[in-house]
Amino acid sequence: MTATLTKPASGPEAPASADVVQPVSWRGPITYAVLGVIALMAFGVLAEGGRSSILGLSYSADKVQLAPLEVPSRTVAILLSLLCLAIAAYSAVKTSRGRRTPVWLGITFGVSFIFAFLCWAIAGTGGISLVGLLQGSLLLAVPLVFGALSGVLCERAGVINIAIEGQLLAGAFLSAVVASVVGNPYVGLVAAPIAGAAVGALLAVFAIRYLVDQIIVGVVLNVLVIGVTSFLYSQLLAPQQNVLNTPDTFDRLKLPLLGDIPVLGRVLFDQSVIVYLMYATVIVVHIALFKTRWGLRVRAVGEHPQAADAVGINVNQLRFRNVVMGGAVAGIGGAFFTLGSVGAFGQEMTAGKGFIALAAMIFGRWSPLGALGAALLFGFADQLQSLLGIVGTPIPGEFMLMAPYLATIFAVAGLVGRVRAPAADGQPYVKS
Amino acid sequence: MKLELRGVTKRFGSLVANDHIDLVVEPGEIHCLLGENGAGKSTLMNVLYGLLSLDEGEVLLDGEPVVFAGPGDAMAAGIGMVHQHFMLVPVFTVAENVMLGHEQTRAGGLLDLAAASAQVREISERYGFAVDPSALVEEIPVGVQQRVEIIKALVRDAKVLILDEPTAVLTPQETDELLEIMKQLKESGTAIVFITHKLREVRAIADRITVIRRGKVVGEATRDTSETELASMMVGRAVSLKVDKAAATPKEVTFAVSDLTVIDERGHRVVDSVSFEVREGEILAVAGVQGNGQTELAEAIIGLQARVTGRITLNGKELVGRSVRQVLHAGVGFVPEDRTVDGLISSFTVAENLVLDLHDRPPFASGVSMKPSVVREQASARVEEFDVRTESVDAPVSSLSGGNQQKVVLARELSRPLELLVASQPTRGLDVGSIEFVHRRLVEERDADVPVIIVSTELDEVAALADRVVVMYRGRIVGIVPGDTPRDVLGLMMAGVGQDEAERDAAEHPTTTLGQAAEGVIT
Amino acid sequence: MTVVTEKEPSPEPSEPADDRPQRARRGLVAGPAVLTALSILLALAVGAVLIIVSNPEVQEKASYFFTRPQDTLGAAWTAVSEAYVALFQASVINVEGSSLGQVFRPLTETLVTATPLIAAGLSVALAFRAGLFNIGAEGQIIAASIAAAYVGFTWDLPIVIHLVVAIAAGMAAGAVWGGIAGLLKARTGAHEVITTIMLNYVARFLVVYLLGLKAFQREGRTDPISPVVAPAAELPLLLGAGFRLHLGFVLALLAAAFVWWLLARSTIGFRFRAVGANPNAARTAGISVERSYTGVMLVAGALAGLAGVSQVLGTSGYLTAGVSGGIGFDAITVALLGRGSPVGTVLAGLLFGGLRAGGIGMQASTGTSVDLVLILQALIVLFIAAPPLVRAVFRIRTKGNVGVGQVSKGWNA
Questions:
Q1: 144-183 of A, contacting C, C-beta below 8 A
Q2: Assigned fold of A132-390
Q3: Cα C201 to the chain's mean position, in Å?
């Protein structure tokens, strides 16, 4: 359970591989099997026959035109479900032999299941646009990515950042107001990280300097930001809408050549500047964290601050800087809610996205690329839910709205124990 | 480089941890700092290294006074430290750990791992360390981890190397290797300050010895000074190096472990088909170097390990698969290895800690309701009986010293009738007086016909207390031998050598002074 | 026994963080009370700044600040004093009231508003003592409200029984909603901060969905509002028809007494506290950490459920989507201010109840947004949590360790 000294695996030398018994849980194959059966029954066998599902693949304005994909709903759903069940069987065989199911198989399962679901859900309707689905997913993921990156920056240094929600909201607020007053969304985009950094600074001061519990500070800061932004909205923004709360939004910027690739081009390279900023931030943070001297020190501080201190690194100063930086990154994400979509600020408009971003960070194993992937998944769930709402599916609207939140619960419950947070995460560093 | 400390004083509130200490370390000298647990040796070195600030006095290097604001300054000045609890990041590689704080970079701050690895390999070859720069620290054995710590210091051109209790986690062989390394370093001109409480090591390697007691320097010695003399300097009174005990009179076998295997969270088999028996009225010691499965064995007996196969029977009752609560109620007493983490709740009072496992049984509770007055009454009685030094039974247990905290844990376990007592590292980190007390109580328990199992890495403790010894190595039992087996044989068995071969080996090669230095703690 | 072992610090480095919660709760009376008062003062000061900055009158006068500064300052003073006086008048006593009843009405309003805050605050405080963050009071209140309201307006039971059953149903539903998070934590280690927040959102959508169903709709209305609960299921009024104070307040106080007994005198509470202070030592002593996590979330959920019950069976009498009205988050600030003790939670609940009740009145009479109260609450808690900050601002020293300290253990605990 515990050791005051670092324990070796067993004994003075590393164990022979015969000693090692890998625990492989049956959770995987069981989940696959259950979902596969649901897919087969609900989407396939019990569905109405004779209907077809239409998947649009390009817009009329595209250079490369692709005809929409039209498939018989029931048949394709059954086929895809059978594929899912086949994967479940394969996984069961692997697990019984004590081997793990490869990740790409899990991804294949996920994709098949989702398409089976789609076939069923849009059967007989006008169909949905795949491009629209993917484009929307990416957009909805943007604040999640920025939030998760903020979490990564803070937690890799050992500070838990629950205040991502507040940082997003602060960024949204300040960017809208500044952009509206100055009349230029780019200036608003510069103001957003400043707001986020301010909240981050508060978190840093209370958690690092005054040693208040980090989760408590985060929760209280969220309440404070909601209070301040809502208060200023009622007192200032609402009465003076035209001056203070009508910012221009960002237009989409299509990248030449890259933007003309069928399907993916539209999705990835025909977005607003905030999205391109997101790509850049993910790459920069990833390289910085894992390949530079700064990154090594940050990770050391988050894993074993005493060791970092013992080689002369100033632990608390580094943590402080990272938390403020994290706040700034989350602030940019907040600008997405206003400048990147509707424009005007609304009270509590972040609606819990900050917490989903936290889950994305955990799901992504505290790595920027992982967080990107997890956020895209959550964004996809969100977008799917709203598209299906428009198209008119059998599931009641409120349950669709619940979906991203339920998904988060499953993600967190299923993953913890298999992921390792930075070892010193959440523990303040106090020198004697 | 000559290192000198003059009148160094460090206080923690009203406690004076270091009291006007003078120390001189000449270049190329191995200087031992000897003292029992709690004497202030580590504090002194932390002050020297810049981890703590000194209140009075000064530090001089080559005659010039220096002030260290932090470890960075100390390292820059040529002082390197290998800590007792390693300062290594487990998830980093060896190269990353060595380069931390001192990184070689290419353009733009990008890490130059190739250069760092090359540096590690170069030093490793020079001293024969055999360390792989790309290995993950959490996957290499403890002895190798220690060498990584030494490399860290050498990479920064350390001229004075401080080693804080380095042999606590090493096998006898690894200790020999370490002492060889120290000699090599000394030959290349590095001064070494070697902190320890183990007399045999000190006499094997030290050029000069400074003895510290309760924060003060009480004397100097050389390796010719006798062990008894050193011991009494350390403790301040004549110390008997033996435990007073009558011969054991073992009776029935009441506890048996059969074919026990424990698999840890990473999937490693840390206890491998272990079988042994214990009788009423005997002390069985599980000996072995830290990390060979003894900790997990003790935890498996009490029910703290999740993946256990095999059988554990106490008075005919099967214990495997039972919850901790059930095992405790079956009459097993457990003194855990790490009292502050697993044994006591620091913020609870002494009285509350004394009923941690019995809080819901009469007379402390009736039904769901607890009886605080009974709890405190009983607590007062226990505190009296075990001579626990505390302001009151309502004081938080964190205000007690290490020795008194361990007494609280013992008092709790011994306050109910036991069918088996398991004590893991019962005297780790304790001062001499507390060690004597604990040993005496363990023997008393044995004499009351309770089977006692102690797990200990200290060979002297094993030799003093055990009626029989089970030696473990890499999760397996190497042999079960009588308590008076010669130390040399035990040491070899702890390194994995089978009993017969060990006995032959020991007879043919009576231990060199270096081998003898591999073990030793005063009792 | 010959050597005198003096009290020396243990040779191992002691964990400073482990000590703080318990030391904080044992702080001397003078210390925390004075600190609380000063923190409130400081928060009011910051709030005043916000009022000034956002007041249209002040803004107008400020445009010619340098020619007639007294206008700006006068407007500023008026804005702040009006707001705070209105706050006081609406929460404590209305000095302009025509009858005795009217004068003390605000106080009764404070008590009504404080009732759910005390109950939910106890919920969060209890979870804290076991080392868990119950951010899900919001969702637990909603779940309990749904159940209690349903029993209240659907079933027809004799007079006292109907009320008891409705209360029981509500508290049970709250317990279940909390227990889900506790079970997930115990079985899978899922961190309760995320699961409880997610469950909050799920509950919010659930109540909207249910209010769209026939079974939950009030006759003749198309908006999402449920039928009124039967009179037999209503919590009786304590001061007669003129005031809104109902039995729920007494129930909340009883709940506080129960929580005190639970933590200080019961074996179950002993285990909760042990697990909250040091799960490793608790486990080694035979205490089941998993059972404690589940158990404490069940009780905490039931306590938050009591808040929901008091809303739906007492204060309003019917179910709407906004039934939880931010009580869940306020409860967190109440628990933090109360420093995890039942008595402190009651007092904190009364204070924040007063602020809330006062805020509504303040918005009505001066137009200052009620969100100011939220800001004040958050600031008070922040200042309480960082005594060195308050000390620095006021240049004083406090006795005892009065901070909030370290409770959380990171994601992998």
A1: 160, 162
A2: ABC transporter involved in vitamin B12 uptake, BtuC (1.10.3470)
A3: 18
